[in-house]
Batch of 4 targets.
Target 1
Amino acid sequence: MNRASRTWWKWFALGAALVILALAWVTSAVLDLERSEWAARADARRQEVLRLALWRMDSWLAPRLARESARPYFEYLSYYPQERAYTRMLTPIEEGAILTPSPLLTFREPFITLHFQVDESGRLSSPQVPTSNHRDLAESTVLSGETIRGCNIVLERIESLIDVEAIRAQVIEEEQRLAMTPASLAPPQQARQQQEISGDYQKSQTAWTMIEQTKRMARNAERFEAPSQQMLEYEEKGQQFDVQPDGVDLAANRTDAVHVGPFVPLWVSDGDEQLKLVYLRQIRMGKSHRLQGFLVDWPRLRATLIEEVSDLMPEADLIPRLAAAGGNGAAAPINLATVPACVKGLPPLSASIAGLTPTRLALLIVWGVVLVALGAGGTMLRASLLYGQRRSDFASAVTHELRTPLTTFRLYSEMLADDMIPEPGRKREYLETLRTESSRLARLVENVLAYARLEEGRQHTSPRRVAVGDLIEEARPALERQAADHGMTLRLDNPLGAAECVCVDRDSVSRILTNLVDNACKYASAAAERTIEVSLSRAGARVHLAVRDHGPGVAADAARTLFAPFRRGRSASKEAASGVGLGLALCRSLARDMGGDLRLATLPAGQRGACFILELPIEPRGRDSA
């Protein structure tokens, strides 16, 4: 490899390295983007599962809490007068009043253990635990004594759990927090806020606040029941009253108005540090303050809520939320809106990419195309460099081949012109040398020009139907003389009949045979048997014309490139060093241009020499016969 070739290969290697590095960087960036996209998709799927799970749990519990929120405050009494104003339900019961049993006497809800209320003095009572005459009435009508005793045990347990002053302060604080929650958002904003999974406590209470406001409106309508009844009584007695203008809350101006607050969920602990969940609300009537609420069976409620989402989150769990939890992103707790609890056991964030994705397939195709392009570029560069080297060798060989006969011509012609060779015998010898060298020079020039015409597409043959015998007899004298000039013998074997014809160009066949015999003379000149055999045979629609010598033959490695242009065979013969490497390439091109072919035959084992077979077509192929 010369210096110019090494320079070209260095530039090619540098360019290939830059292309591969750039493609590797692009591949890494694309794969990172793909992994980020898959992670975002997986997170979106997980968030969708979380939203659906939270919606299921909250939607299961919200109607039940809404029912409790809409429950009138006087239903926390075991019995209450049937015909009494809304605001006077807590006044002493008059003798002979018609009593109505509270629906809570026989109320049963799997997750609600007991309803209870705390009066202003801190005493606990429950509508499910009637006292004095109301207990006798309940046992004789709707409840058994065993049921009442069981509820009383639960009530005593609640009394031991609750610190009235502390719990009242917590309820007031939570009411104020709920009052600060922005609940007057537009419906689309409310929907978006409810769907956000965040640790912000106020956001987790939005759905609860909406429920409380709806029920509060219903309760406000009930508050006007007593004033309406009183106005009817005034009308019956003919008394006058002032009508308040629109927008004025009549109940707010009355000292006996009933204010029912929203339910607030709170966690309380017993002596064993086990958390109990209670829902409490404030009832304010003038200066009287009461707490009403119910104890939740948290294990049962927890199991029920988890069962609701078992198909979405098989490993889901609920843990109490003891404070307003904060945080953002993946570290934020997932809070329920209706229960102060956090969701655990989230579905795993599966972002692994399995299989051949479109992105990876595209990258593989790009890598394949780039590698094939680099390989093709390297192959083309190698072929170009080799071709250039061969052409350079060819130019050197042509120069050498031309210099030898031209030098001989100049020397001999000057000697003959100056009468420096007086002897007739020597003069005849010099003239014969000049004739031989002129023939050699003519063949060389004609081969070069013929190959140039073939490469440029200007070589035109004229195949004609001719008898094989006539074709060989025409070329035989020149071939015998050519072999004799090299001290060899030409032997012709033609078993074909005189009527066997082929469709060929006479000049092309003559040139092919001349080149083949010339090669045999050069490469087999040192052989023990100095005979060149030319034989004919018929093979299907072709006539095979074989030219064989008994020289060293063609090496296996040289046989693969024997018919390539600018390639010359190797031989120990000095004469074999001559030539420009175009003979066999030209011969094959001429043979194929006539519709035939030229190939190297394989000799049987033990036989020496080289055998070339020229295949000639019997019928014309795409040409008119003459």
Target 2
Amino acid sequence: MPYCTLNTGTSMKSMMIAALAAVSFSAVAQAQAAPAAVQAPSNKPTYGNFGFDAAGMDPSVKPGDDFYRYANGTWEKNTPIPADRSNFGMFTVLDELSKARTREILEAARSDAASRPGRAYASYLDKATVEAKGMAPIQPWLAEVKKTDKAGYPALLAKAQRAGISTPFPNIVGQDDKNPENYILTVFQGGLGMPDRDYYLLDTEKMAKTRAAYLKHLEGMLTLAGEPNAAARAKAIYDFEATIARDHWTRVDSRDADKTYNKRTLAELQKEAPGFDFTPMLTTGGKAAGEMLVSQPSAVAATAKAVAAAPIGVLRDQMLVRSIETYATYLPDAVAEQNFAFFGTELNGTPQRQERWKRAVDFTVGAVPDDVGQAYVQRYFPPETKAAMDQLVQNVLAALGRRIDGLTWMQPETKVKARGKLANFTTKIGYPDRWKDYSGLEVKSDDLFGNAWRSNAFDFADGRSKLGQPLRRWEWFMTPMTINAYANFGMNEIVFPAAILQPPFFDPKADSAINYGGIGAVIGHEISHHFDDQGSKYDANGKLTTWWTEKDVANFKALADRLVAQYDAYEPTPGEHVKGALTLGENIGDLAGLAIAYDAWKASLGGKPAPVIDGMTGDQRFFLGWAQIWRRNVREAAARQRLLTDPHAPDPYRADIVRNFDQWYEAFKPAPDGKLVLKPEDRVKIW
């Protein structure tokens, strides 16, 4: 399922599995605290006099030196990161609001025995029962892991994946990129406990410290599993994973739609990757998979070789650790705290876990997302917001169409096809037209661990059930409560959950320049993903195919390479650079999205000049509206992880994409020697 998101991270289990990032962090606290009150309606915008928080600006910073801090510097200085967060910004402000609103819904359902969300929420809040049960709920599974021999290891992994536990060979069901009306199984590289191969391979002092902390974490998890000689066994797990890491593909290669499309039969996979029997993992309903996709064939083969060479004790120990990590938040606090010490504090710098009610909300939304989503949109997503978004989307789509017509680097015959792709877009706003049915999922108010185990099994079975069935064009991969948006290449769709359609992204009481600089650019970002360096490989029907001429490809690459170089030059901390190739798709999305939104905003004025408000011109407000949505403070460890793994550039550089816009220079008149200033011929323009 190829897709691109606006912001780092997602909230739905299905999306996290698809992204192969399924670590959750959680924490203890006052389950009974009163829900946050929802503010009464006002005729004023939420931010400032016209939708922008001017008090958060830092006028001592020249816009031509650092536009992000000119627009946001005082906010940055005066806004602490909460102790339970690795970062804090406009996305997290809305996430806190979304959680508080969802909590109100779940508190009302908590005492209703007939409510699935209510029972799920109650089970998480029942700390006393969780503590009383201790490790007992997971012991039968740990016992099964401990008694497994080498011959039984493939079957163990098959059971583990049904329980949501990561394995060395993760696999999911998604669209077949070259036959997008069909579902197919895709196998990915896996087997690492840390976020990326670089955590094992980079020879820096900071990475050495993280590796030492990871060894302590492995030792702690084995100790919780009741295992002796935990330190030596932890080192053996680490060495096994380090061997796998050396053959993992980079994230740049792994985002290449052409390189990762490798169709195989089970027999062909088995021949390429001897040493591991894939049949149990790739069997559904007693029938082994026929054709499948293998995303990183050489890495999968190398991992199979490493598995074949590893002693069964090491493989069992790794599975013990992965199992406890996966279910740590559903076990006693001592387990969850141990797990959080590494994944929360070491990797992200977060001092403490979130309050228990917040974790309970996250668990419930993850377990029965559509049940919660239905209640959320009924209460918090008015029809007029959906109607306003519909109009904004149409305006932005029209603006992109005009831009396609005016491109000088694209051939006329390709423009016709690009227009056809644009005309075939599906836009999803707010919430799905159809909701999932969880009637087959058993949820008990006094069985948190069991609820989590059964929910993971339900999700796995639901995914596998897609094979051989018609496409679920109605299905969403984010909940209405998610503060994000995404583009799905195979479906040729753009998706905007309800919760992001709020200030500062969209405020019906705000000036139109702010709204177009905010949600308008978000819309443009997601639309233009379908024409970025990867999305452009998919045609109007979502098929991975060549529909550009060779000249188009060469012209586009030349422009994209300039953007890669621009971002490679950014150095957030000494010696640590932004990866221009990794962030290219998102940077194209920002560049194109802002350009499209600007055109759409100008068209919406009907030929009339934008008024001056509080001494600011319309163009100034438009670019400030863009900069405002990227306000974010990030802890050092989290920032480092993002640089290594995140396809999005750090937020200040997303705001500073304005340096490529002639209109920005006209609006703010930066000095010629400004640090952001580019000569006209050096400004990158793609769409």
Target 3
Amino acid sequence: MVSETKHKWWQETVFYEIYMASFQDSNGDGIGDFRGLTDRLDYLQDLGVNGLWITPFYPSPKVDNGYDVADYFNVDPDFGNLSDFDNFIEQAHARNIKVIIDVVLNHVSTEHLWFKQAVSDRKSKYRDYFFFQDEPNGRESFFGGSAWQKEADGPQVYYHKFAPEQADLNWQNKAVREDMQAVLKFWLDRGVDGFRFDVINFLSCNGVGEENSSDVSGKQIHSHDIDQPGIFECISEICTFVRDYSKDCFLVGEVGHEELSKLVPYQSDDLLDVVFNFNLGSIASFDIGNVHEQLVAMEDRQGGLPTIFFNSHDMPRSMSRLCQNNAAHAAALAALTLTARGVSFLYFGEEIGLADFIPENIHEMRDVQAINHYQLALDEGKTKSQAYGRALKECRDKSRLYMQWNSHKFSGFSSSIPWIGEGAPNSNMPNVEAQINDPDSLLHWYKMLIALRRECPALNLGRYDVLSLDKGLLTFVRRWQNQILHIMINFCDVKYAFNHNPSHEVLASKGLNLGEPDFLLPFGTLITREVQDVC
């Protein structure tokens, strides 16, 4: 169990995910970069976030938008160079903003030197960095199709859980583990404060192993290619190395499950500090009963702090997926994200209410997963329209459109056509410029909630005294020492009458009417404190 008696900096941090290519372009090439990000640090400081998670920025062919790494020890020219990175870290730290970076340990790009050596010389030590065999088995890629690809100029096939250009690493090989430790050390020496480990439970720690099974419809069940025997020892070795080298480091795991029972084992003093709670964060539609059930389950069954989020670069945006483009619902969800017990993770643009980007055709899609499924559908005899529908269902581009800083065409990417969303209209999208001075805006509400979370220890460190649901009213009480906060969020579509305690000071509210009777409007929020303590 992760101890909560010793406070870690990350327990009091609100994290904000930056999708590098889409945040801010500084040089007019249509791709976000470190100089652009550095220029926006004042905005992030004003927003109140004090932790950033940066998606991969390493040299890459970008088959999977940077999650196919060709060189772990450098910065892709699209994003700048190492000096730009170092300046970004320095400027972020000067504003008391911590930085964690995405590290992909499961696979490398087939353009990586290790893989090139492996295929050019079958006697090279790098051949054993990967999985080569004479014939494929029946395993399927998570992106669709076979998980095996024939090497270009050789007789064997190699293993890839994702795109063919992402060759899986052999974590049974001690040399692989040592080389990856050198990668982590390199970035720790450059000042990063932690790592987000991509698909960390996918590591192949026990070879390729058995065939996967299939369900009654013939769909493959990934029963043997993740959570392999030896995975916990493998992750423990990684985490121990990092903590021995930098004791104050924050280690976040993307564990590929939506079931809490499968997430919990990866979090402990010897393993990850936190895991992404997809059991809550990736729900397909909003049901306050289910949300409450998951919050209770995380309290009852999770040894360490959970993570609270509803957005990331891999899922449709909550404004579309959960809130049906209702700004009031988005404000209520923001209140939940920033007042519930756990480490809060925001995703760029959610603070202004960005909705999904919907590519109009396959040519506007940039996501390899979507493109693969489009081709698979065509191969199965589907029409182009049917194939597009399947691709759109799988498409992760929905949350990757560039940040909307203003109403100008291409916003912060105005000097060039952006890497994604050339045809996306800007005029009717929410943007920072329109909201930043509006006290009724969603952006202002986020700023208020983030400030409150950072100022009140009960919201960072406090336990739940109460965590209840009545109809659609979610109520919880957070207590830390003698500070007691009461949070009410009305997820009903009708107003909710209640009895307000006049001795409680109102710290933040939205949709509140104090009168005869007292009530919260649909999706209203009330946060109060008991008067014996001051935040």
Target 4
Amino acid sequence: MAQLPQHRVGNARRSFFERGTLPVGTVPDAILQSWRRCQRSGLAVDAQPQLEPLPGANLRELRERHERLWHLARAELDGLAAHAASTDSIVLLTDESGWILNAEGNAGFLDRAGRVALMPGVCWSEAAVGTNAIGTAIVEGRAIEVRGGEHFFAPHGILSCAATPIHDPHGQLVGVLDFTGPASVQQMHALGLARLAANRIEHRFFENGMDSCELLRLHHDRALLGTAGEGVLGFRNGRLVAANGVGLRLFGLERGDIGRASYEALFDAPLSRMRDDGMLQDRSGRILHGQLEASAARVARAQAVSVPVPQARPALPLPAAGTVFSAAQEQQLARAGRVLEAGLPVLLQGETGTGKEVAARALHARGSRAGKPFVAVNCAALPEGLIEAELFGYEEGAFTGARRQGSPGLLRQAQGGVLFLDEIGDMPLALQPRLLRVLQDRELSPLGGGKPVKLDFMLVCATHCDLQQAMDEGRFRSDLYYRIADHVMRLPALREEADRTALVQALWAPLAQQRTLSDQALQKLAAYHWPGNLRQLVACLRTLVALSEPTAVIAAECLPEYLLVVPTPAVVPAGDGSLQEMTLEVMRQALAACDGNVSQAAKRLGVNRSTLYRRLKL
């Protein structure tokens, strides 16, 4: 959110506090609602807040009560403090009530903040201090920015603050992380950095497992597994009893759903599927990759009797889609493999769900570097503002939130193997020149300095975008395109498959486990146009397996509703025939078939709602 000019904030304050009118649209609604709460609670805007810090002994006792929170947050605080010290700002950690446990950063600004009692041992709840990022984030239950005159009390107008709540695995508020600087300096990334640090702290709550709880670590993007970007869900007796924020957002859940939501409401397949296959299908038909961890209590008991605990299997690509290639595609893969072996990059182009990553993994598995790393990077899923650090790595203290030991970056993780840059068409324009230089020189320098590192990897890129159109519109650099597209392999949409019956049968065979598709069911599956392509079809077949008994004959009435009520003749998209236009047309048709319901259309296509909003400009 852009910072409001302080004269506009001043006008809003006069309108609200002097004339008693609501300056709707002049200040953020969360600020306005906070002002109203403060007035109703009896706070006088012209009063001088009197705040005294706790005596030393009481502060030590307060910190001891929250030792675990401090332990889990320490690495993030150290990283944020290093940056804050150089940007005239400070980072604060509070408990769930707003009592400041720790404040670190720029010594000069710590002194100025101390003049308004922004220091350890002081409670910055909204009830005590009026509108402020810490207290208002607690009341609102979400990340909040409060800048300058948006604070309730005038003396706090010297501050610009961004705070985000920290929750434990059971959804309970345990603290707040706050980034504060002078109001005269616009902190562009403060809120994003605070959120990222809070995500990492919440992720650490699960490091040692959960007692009497089975932990499911998962994401639809395998590259995020093992990072703070993965979803973590804990189940006990079929009930969701623990989760991190990422896990909740994956399923559209709120913190209040912890303890209420059931496993069956979220997933189509039993938990054992994750242990066996490294993947699960949710009720929306999405395939999620990950691993299942036994409860901490169960592991402890097993270790006590010296019974080895089986290790969770790594996430695997879709086996069905990964083993089915037409004769034409086999020829294309062979040609692309020869190009890769010659040290030249390959670009995979196709709609969402056509199996671009499956093809990339097949190229890796069939090549000379099969035993080396395969690193998949979803360029559209990396955290905005930190993409460069995630890709290229960074040295210790390179930026706020940086790990103490730095990070090698995803490009270096692919050393000696294959680097797969998925959705490269969605890479921010500002980052493209640096990637171009790395690909040209095969050498990178981590953020924050450090010795340049020589790189050795085969490069495969993929996109659902029409890169020619993106270049014409100035969204993608032509010099980068010619660096990554020495050879282009196009993956056709499923509706273009001439013999879909044979394809359905080939995909069904490894999944069926003695089940049989009736002739009518097979006809309907083959006739449908599958806007979500292979991903949607494989998800549908897996659902049929999960909902039927072994040796069953799957009748047409067992098929998903959209196969029974939506006309099944193949659709030929209108427009200019380009990949971009075909993709947009399929999205429009799905949206129309769902009566404009974006969530339903996104589920049908197997994409995120944000993708539809962005591509169709809804």
